[in-house]
Amino acid sequence: MPPLSSPASSGPKTSYHEFYADDFSPRDHYRLLWDHIRATGNNALETKDHESQLALQTEGVTFTVYGESEEEIERIWPFDLIPRIITAPEWSRIESGLKQRVKALNLFLEDLYGEQKIIKDGVIPPELIYQGKDFRREIVGIVPPRGIYTHISGIDIIRDEQGDFLILEDNLRTPSGVSYMIENRVIERRILPEFFNKYRVRRVEHYPSLLLDALRCLSPRGKGTAEIVLLTPGIYNSAYFEHTFLAKEMGIELAEGRDMVTINDIVYLKTTKGLKRVDVIYRRIDDDYLDPLIFRSDSSLGIAGVINAWRAGNVAIVNAPGSGIADDKAVYPFVPDIIRYYLGQQPILKNVPTYQMTNATDREYVFDNMERMVVKAVSESGGYGMLMGPSSTPALRKEFMDRVLENPRNYIAQPVVYLSRHICYMDGELEARHLDLRPFVIYGEDIQVVPGGLTRVALRKGSLVVNSSQGGGSKDTWVLAE
Amino acid sequence: MLSRIADSMYWMARYLERAGETARLMEINLLYLVEAEEDMGEEEKWRPVLEITAALPQYVELYGDDAITTQRVLQFVCGGRTNNNSIRTCLRLFRENARVARDRISKEMWEAVNDIWMTYNERLRGSITLEKASNLFVELRNQVARFNGLLAATMMRGEAYAFCQLGGCVERTDMIARILDVKYHIILPDIHLVGSALDYYQWAALLKSLSGFEAFRRTNQSGFEPKAVVDFAVFEHDFPRSLVFSVDRAGAALANIGLEGKEKTAAAFAALQSLLASSNGETVFTNGLHEFLEQVLSLLAGFHNALAEEFFQ
């Protein structure tokens, strides 16, 4: 990869404001909302804010943060009242860009675990794949039904300083957040029904039924007899709320690895009435923990023998094992090439400029400009293993440089993008906070993008980190109908 | 249904019942503290509560053997960190099991679970004064009743529901047997005193611990004859907090679950039923109440073990 043509410019830039067109007036599509907020007044907003917090608390909409005390690590999902609005033309671009990207990434995965034409054709360097810890040699040669690997993708999108939508990250393993997208909508409707009278907002609550359909199609015994389970690591997992939410919404069994057993390449559930065959596993655990016979042998979260059952075609696994290599952050800079290679099209949505730490020129440039960079470990997610240049200390920057030199393949760097801002209701005041967007893509009979997504907000003033594990919050996201 | 989920439903109900029963026991004991004779020490009044809730060993470990005071017991039973059966621990495990089985319980139930936990988590761990205590226990019992009402009104009938019922019944049977055993022995330290005039307040407290005072009065107006009290608390089919009533109800739940191919569970439950069927107030008094209750508790434990082996693993 050549050094980037446009290196990070000097000095902080002004981020795009989603809500305001200028100092005095909101953008057109926010005008009705703005008038309404002003007419309602702060007191009413305060009451609404309080109501929404109470509702989230009573409904137990929580997430878990790792690494604190044993007992109380559950936190209430932080929610901001003011919705984020995406216009129909904006959405149409996002939607087609995501479909294109997911299509290409699935062709890429099928190729990687098959003929590897893309490597032979010199588009992707072989070491990039073979050194990736999420490339699973154990499953080369297995073709999942219809060549679909990522039935569910949660792709992070940001807006740069000009307001252009950019892809920040492809989450293709076990992307989470969709339950919060729905809960946010449910709460918003309940607390602020009057907001909805003013706009034609597209619905998102049917996501679980779209997903259920896609899962049923995968049953080796046919759509009619599909026993589907959601495989969870258990109540201490950060996304346990979401696991229960989805299992309930789809009416499928919420199971842990220990609830299942594999006999003669068939997976069974252990029930009070004996064993019951399983057709589709929607797993919410990583490949590493999926099957102790194939991957990490010390894992007790998975199901021994499940990979062989999958290989034999007796059970479907969603997303397919091995999908992680396609969202490896070191593969990310190549996704535009991947789209061109498989589809012969130009990418609709651009990437954020990215520096490869294996490339000496890139690396030197990044080291010289650490304060303006985000350095990320390639196979981490959730904001873990990341350096935010602008808010880092010299010691931390030094530590990251050492880590990069030790294992360059394991890191990438990107110039800090000043994520777009939006007004948020913070303790009685409307203040600007940075945010991103994670829409969800389902690949079943065809590729569908639910019109909306999870808008994540960096609640700390000035912060660019939106992950809920790092003090992030969320907003309801409205995609407007034509 | 999943074996693990069945286990969680069963324990969810057991822990809530245990929390509720403990709160009732504390509430009655506080009253009794006021009503009982003045020469009775704190030690005598509270030791039975620690025995019934199986918290005595941990209490002694924390405070030493001869240091039973009202304030400490209040604190320890409500939220003592080393007390595995504290009300707070029961509520925490109640919520944890509900969370595991989140996809099996109704939204209304789940909201009540969170409400209970949010209301009592901190309160039970904070300082609990004598003045605040009674209200706390009354409120908590109301919350438990509310949850059970939501369970009856909103939960799908089926296996999951049956396991909830079963858990509640097993816990209640266990508690009733313990209350009778411990309390009765305090009231009657010497078996030769049977039939002598006994302190009204002590019997009243025992019956109130079972929520059976008024019901007993209505059926037995002649006074607190020990045999009559035991007959009522153990064998009265119409009294919803008698031993036989709880065991009957557990039987109904088991019938809904289905015992096909579950020989050990079926046999263990039959043993418990037949002990109750073949006994009455008369035989219990001849052979010894304590011996009888010990037998009940051991058969109940046997039943629980068979259930765990055949359904939960």
From TrEMBL, chain B:
Residues 1-312 form the DUF403 domain. It holds the Pfam family Alpha-E. It comes from the Bacteria. This is DUF403 domain-containing protein.
